[in-house]
Amino acid sequence: MQTEKPRPQAQSVTDWFRVTFKGVVDPAADFFNRLGIHPNYMTGAGLVLNAIGALFISQGAMTLGGVFILIGGPFDALDGTMARRLNQPTRFGAFVDSVTDRWSEMLILLGLAYFYVTGDDPNGWLNVLLVFLATMGSVMVSYTKSRAESLGFTANVGVMTRLERYLIMAPCLVFGIPWVALWILAIFANFTALQRTWHVRKQAYSKQEE
Of 23, 1, 19, 2, which is closest to residue 10 (Cα–Cα)? Predict the structure, then answer.
């Protein structure tokens, strides 16, 4: 009697979303493919929507900026799926997708930094510090993964990947409490970078033992 092999467990919320919402994302990707829209256009549209949102955020219109960012999120999710459904994924396309994701996130944080620097909030200095720490964490989460993969390791782990940061930032902006998102990102994004560093360390020492 054969025993059923255990299914691989998702390593992050991103993996869970990819599996759980596959029945929604794949048909949506097929729909846009039938319209003849190139995946890179979806990538660009997501970046533009996030940039518009960041502009509103810089002027203090947090809710409106959050709405644009919420709308831009699905564009970021669909571009890669569209390319895969067309059997046309390319390394350059993946590169552009990753780069625009970083730009989108940095633009949002830049908008928040500008708002706090130019505003009259007595806690503005603290919020600017939180923006910096959130930015540092976001960059390090991305860098630890890309550097690990370039050395032959994996680092797709952690509590605060790109999707989690989006799911925290966008609603907090819509409800006008961006400082809550900044506290969470400042702490847990940097913690995730440490998680990935530790994950790579375990792989490195495991290879040495072999």
Answer: 19
Q: What is the CATH number of the domain that holds 105?
A: 1.20.120.1760
Distance linking the first and last C-alpha atoms of the chain: 33
Catalytic member of 76, 97, 101, 121: 101
Whether residue 1 lies inside any domain: the answer is: no
What are 43-72's pLDDT values in tens digits? 888 999 999 999 999 999 999 999 999 999
| pTM for the predicted model, two decimal places | 0.85
**Of 5, 8, 6, whose CA–CA distance to 154 is shortest?**
8
pLDDT digit string, tens, across residues 88-135: 777 787 788 888 989 999 999 999 999 999 988 888 899 999 999 999
Instruction: Answer yes or no: is 127 within a domain.
Output: yes
Say whether 12 sits in a helix, a strand or coil: coil
Contact (Cβ atoms closer than 8 angstroms) between residue 140 and residue 193: yes
SS3 of residue 146 by DSSP = helix
User: Tokens 């994996």, residue?
Assistant: 154
Structure-token pair, residue 151:
């050395």
Domain count, the chain: 1
CA angle 14, 20, 21 (to 5 degrees): 90
Whose tokens are 């530790």? That residue is 198
**6 found inside a domain:** no
Residue 128 domain flag = yes
To the query of whether residue 101 is one of the catalytic residues in this protein, the response is: yes
Please check whether residue 134 is in contact with residue 106, taking contact to mean a CB–CB distance below 8 angstroms.
no
Range of the structural domain that residue 182 is part of: 13-202
